[in-house]
Amino acid sequence: MPASTTDRDADEHIIQVRGLKNAFGEQVIHDDLDLDVRRGEILGVVGGSGTGKSVLMRSIIGLQTPVAGDITVFGEPTVGREETEATNIRKRWGVLFQGGALFSTLTVSENVQVPLREFYGDMNPALMAEIAAYKVVMTGLKPDAGPKFPAELSGGMKKRAGLARALALDPELLFLDEPTAGLDPIGAAAFDDLTKSLQKTLGLTVFLITHDLDTLYAICDRVAVLADKKVIAVGTIDELLALDHPWIEEYFKGPRGRAAVATKDAQADAHPTEIKSRQIAASPAAATEPAEQARTTD
Ligand SMILES: Nc1ncnc2c1ncn2[C@@H]1O[C@H](COP(=O)(O)OP(=O)(O)OP(=O)(O)O)[C@@H](O)[C@H]1O
């Protein structure tokens, strides 16, 4: 039987948010916010500090109960679901929280195994360790990172370890909250390349909160702008600039925005047949090298 229009839309939009309202006491964070995230895209989410980017992410993944509104992920409603019903949806996404949020008393391998234990507690421990080792290497860390504790890792390595944990369950959807914050420019660029490469090879959809203009230009298919308690615009950067909105103009055409464009253009000129944001391999070494190039953040 052919899929109905509704089914097709739900399939195309991995995340659908309608009429979202969030408030903490008198402070209204979101009011009548709508957003669609398309299958297979990297959606950058930007907005001034405190506009509610992280609260939006937490609402989508069920850590924040909205005052009003509907959220569907993979076509399934997530607001007000019973824990047991939500589990099947939660298995299909991975989350990298701001700062990595690794458990400091667990090794990298044990951190990566946390979601496996949560959702597949009866899995053979040797298999869990094997899966963890695979995810560690997949994120560009050396195999010997597995037995290390977070305190023994650089900032870039911690982010990769957090990403390895987010990938533990082979998710279809990845949430990244400011993944390049605190990284040096080369480490940040390498992390961007890693994200793009994972999106392509694993067919991931990525919801990416960032303040990093280089990341937006380098890897995001579309960008959603949060302001005035809503998503005021979604589109490619060119589409957003055509809107003539003062905040968007200021954000993308300010000095840092211009620097990000200049970096992108310079690299496109250097590699006219393959427009790569930065020619930095997503290698473990790159994540720990000192800064050598300019990088722009807002
Ligand atoms: N648990 C909470 N209790 C009360 N207020 C909260 C809570 N979580 C977030 N807020 C408030 O909600 C607003 C939005 O926070 P949020 O962390 O989503 O902003 P953001 O856009 O991600 O900011 P930034 O870019 O600085 O990380 C802020 O004013 C914050 O203080």
General form: globular
Main sheet: which strands, in order across? 6-7-8-3-9-10
Number of helices: 11
Write down the overall mean pLDDT: 83
Largest sheet: 6 strands, mixed
- Taking Cα atoms only, what radius of gyration do you get, to the nearest Å? 19 Å
In N-to-C order, the SSE pattern is HEEEHEEHEHHHEHEHEEHHH
**Distance between the first and last residues' Cα:** 49 Å
| Estimated share of beta-strand residues | 15-25%
What fraction, in percent, of the residue positions are helical? 25-40%
Structural class: alpha/beta
Bound ligands, named by name, code or SMILES: adenosine-5'-triphosphate
Regions with little confidence, pLDDT below 50 for 5+ residues: 1-7, 272-294
Total number of strands: 10
Description of the structure:
One of its GO terms (molecular function) is ATP binding. The chain has helices at 5-12, 53-60, 83-90, 108-119, 125-138, 155-166, 185-202, 213-219, 237-241, 246-253, 255-270; strands spanning 13-24, 27-38, 42-47, 68-73, 76-77, 93-96, 173-177, 205-209, 222-227, 230-235. With 298 residues, it is of the alpha/beta class. A six-stranded mixed β-sheet has the order 6-7-8-3-9-10, sandwiched between helices. The chain has a four-stranded antiparallel β-sheet with strand order 2-1-4-5. A hairpin with a 2-residue loop joins strand 4 (68-73) and strand 5. The longest helix is centred in the middle third of the chain and has 18 residues, at 185-202. Residues 1-7 and 272-294 have low confidence and may be disordered. Adenosine-5'-triphosphate binds next to helix 2.
